[in-house]
Design brief:
Blueprint lengths: L4 E6 L4 E8 L2 E9 L1 H4 L7 H23 L6 E9 L3 H18 L3 E5 H13 L6 E6 L4 E6 L8 E5 L5 H11 L6 H8 L34 H17 L5 H27 L3 E5 L6 H14 L2 E3 L3 H4 L4 H13 L27 H6 L3
Parallel strand pairs: 1-4, 4-5, 6-9, 9-10
Antiparallel strand pairs: 1-2, 2-3, 6-7, 7-8
Helix pairs in contact: 2-3, 4-11, 5-6, 5-7, 5-8, 8-9
The chain binds 5'-O-[(R)-(carboxyoxy)(hydroxy)phosphoryl]adenosine and zinc ion.
Amino acid sequence: MGGAVVLGIESSCDETGAGLVRDGRLLGQAVASSMAEHVRFGGVVPEIAARAHVQAMTPVVDRALADAGLSLRDVGAVAVTAGPGLAGALHVGVSAAKALAYALDVPLYGVHHLAGHVAADTLEHGPLPDPCVVLIVSGGHTSLLLVRDLARDRIDHLGDTLDDAAGECFDKVARVLGLPYPGGPAIDLAARGGDPAAVAFPRPLTGGGSGGGGEAAHTYAFSFSGLKTAAARWAERHHATGTPLPLADGAAAIQEAVADVLTRKAVAACRAHGVGTLVVVGGVAANSRVRALAAARCAAAGIALRVPPPSLCTDNGAMIAAVGDLLVRAGEPPAPDPLAVTVDPSAPLERAALHPAPAAAMGRSV
Ligand code: KG4
Ligand code: ZN
């Protein structure tokens, strides 16, 4: 009586992920990361990431199956991240998914990576309420969304970042502070014991005065590039006076600024749209201060907060399987021509399903 077992494959950045989901339940998963190979470059090197995916893909799929106690014969559908992400990295996952779907003679679903981040939460907390407000905060994206039926409906963007993503901001600030890549976890760790009020870093686009005209149009938009500059000036001032950098205070204050802006806007969006549930997802949702401040502000506003556990916040295959499972159960059509599915590295988030064909992918200018 159960539905199909969906195998999800993720390879958009530096994590190779595979997961198995049926009827909203996570059966097993595995992730391999090439993070360590990028550290000395201070960021993900696309060619290194793509090669690492090639090497990791088969073992990761095998490990996920073993984790679930299943074999390939049990897989009833395959879902894969078709975009957005690094083109070469995406191609590895899409090629593997096509090969598996073809060999097993099962349907293939191309999936939007960010819809995967949203669906990750369903594996922990069950079906999403309709509607809910979703704050996606990852290394490449920061968006406030109004989500209805994730599998069937168009996704409404209430606001997006005008420049850097929140994770990108953490990664760049960490560099300025001499902390390793990836910067988010490093800042989270460095901030422990620091005073978040030690430095008054700006709160961009919160309408707090200095923004000048036009802020009203940016009620739910974000801007984080100025924080990187502010952190650099702060570090320079210390270097110029020869005083040691109070790293814990600086990290805590930056983290506070990011968490404050994210949660303030997310709660305001819930209120304005009369929505009772906020879902916070993506790599930055693993941040301890973002989680704590979101919890406090949602509690004060009477809003239910859902945040996946940190291991489901960063990239993984289970979240892609979760989208595939939702699409299967909603009766959404799989890719009409599975072998023609290609990648769309800059796909905007419009729907959970993403089935780019070669002509469409080439037609878009980045
Ligand atoms: O969602 P994700 O794994 O990959 C993308 O789709 O981008 O997000 C990665 C981002 C990186 O910028 C990383 O620094 C950030 O998530 N991140 C964190 C934490 N863990 C990961 N940022 C703040 N605090 C954390 N604990
Ligand atoms: Zn991601």
